[in-house]
Design goal:
The chain folds into 2 domains: 1-179, no CATH class; 204-329, no CATH class. It has helices at residues 2-20, 24-51, 53-59, 64-78, 81-96, 100-124, 128-152, 169-203, 206-242, 246-273, 275-282, 290-299, 306-318, 322-328. The longest helix has 37 residues, at 206-242. 37% of the residues are buried. The model has no long low-confidence stretch (mean pLDDT 90). The protein contains 14 helices and no strands.
């Protein structure tokens, strides 16, 4: 997913700017080079990941039966890795056009079959964890297919050469550079998860792991709206920047940052005021101590700053300044 977001976000940033300044030459080169970038990155990840699957699962804290099931799930998922990458890439590019409704519909076309097939494969066909992976794989296959059909049927607002793989060096590396900040955030999040989980497993006790899982789930719940705002901000900033409407670019960033703060602030205040009650919403039967309530307040302390950070991660690549976004990330 991270590699697909890398290719798709990079291409979407360039596309939005190209649409704003009517740069048809760049528009025509984007899809072939985004596809090539996705293919190269898939091979670069999938082959080593398949070979070292046990090591990767162990790094995440997997042992015994969990290790075996984790390896099965990872290797099964990697069989369809190109469709994971292409599906996300196509969807990001559609969002770069500003067509959020279309992108959401295509995403739902892959998600709903996944939800329907998962219990069928696991419970009816008794496929276990491999069944869950295959349900996701088939969902991503449909996700990619509908994205492909969107471009084949010429519904895009630009000259989308979806069947071309013509390499253009400058465009290829511009995609890599523009999409890298988002990919770096995924990588750092993964590294953080590996370090924290392994530290808890080897130093802490079961209650520490339960607390972290609950706190992290709450944190993800609170920042999820930020991801939606980021996706919506990108084409607005990019297209207006390409059209040299710089005042709109500035106002869009300020507005989205403010809206993000309005969405986060009430929940942050409530959870900081009633941390124990908030934790019990996630783990109702667990007895939390006062110290863990303090830890939750510390864990959530950065939330008011995240709207502007998240918007900056979208804003800078959308105006062609990926290096600044990398520093923020």
């Amino acid at each position: 997913m991270g590699f697909g977001a890398w290719a798709g976000t990079g291409a979407a940033n360039l596309l939005s700017i190209a649409l704003g300044n009517n740069d048809e030459d760049t528009q025509q080169k984007l899809l072939p080079n985004a596809t090539l970038f996705g293919f190269v990155s898939t091979l670069a990840f999938a082959i080593p990941a398949n070979a070292f699957a046990p090591v990767l699962i162990q790094l995440m804290g997997g042992e015994g039966g969990i290790l075996i099931e984790g390896v099965t799930y990872l290797r099964t998922s990697l069989l369809m890795a190109p469709f994971w990458v292409y599906g996300v890439t196509f969807n990001m590019i559609i969002r770069g056009e500003g067509k959020m409704k279309t992108a959401a519909g295509i995403m739902a076309a892959g998600l709903l079959p996944n939800l329907a097939l998962t219990p069928l494969f696991i419970l009816v066909f008794d496929m276990g964890v491999a069944g869950a992976a295959w349900a996701t794989n088939l969902g991503m296959l449909l996700y990619s297919l509908f994205g492909y059909l969107y471009f084949v049927r010429k519904r895009a607002s630009f000259a989308a050469r979806v069947n071309s793989l013509r390499y253009h060096r400058a465009t290829f590396w511009a995609i890599a550079q523009s999409g890298f900040p988002g990919f770096m955030v995924n990588i750092t999040s993964l590294i953080q998860a590996v370090v924290v989980l392994n530290t808890i497993v080897y130093v802490g006790v079961a209650s520490d792991l339960a607390f972290y899982a609950a706190a992290n789930r709450m944190f993800i719940f609170l920042v999820t709206p930020m991801f939606g705002l980021m996706r919506a901000l990108q084409p607005i900033v990019g297209i207006n920047y390409g059209a040299e409407q710089y005042d709109r670019v500035k106002k869009s960033f300020q507005l989205f940052s403010f809206v993000g703060l309005l969405l986060v602030a009430p929940f942050w205040l409530g959870m900081s005021w009633l941390p124990e009650a908030s934790l019990r919403l996630v783990l109702p039967d667990y007895l939390f101590v006062g110290q863990e309530a303090f830890y939750l307040r510390v864990y959530l302390a950065v939330l008011p700053l995240l709207p502007i950070v998240f918007m900056a991660l979208t804003f800078f690549p959308a105006i062609g300044k990926a290096k600044q976004a990398s520093l923020v990330g």
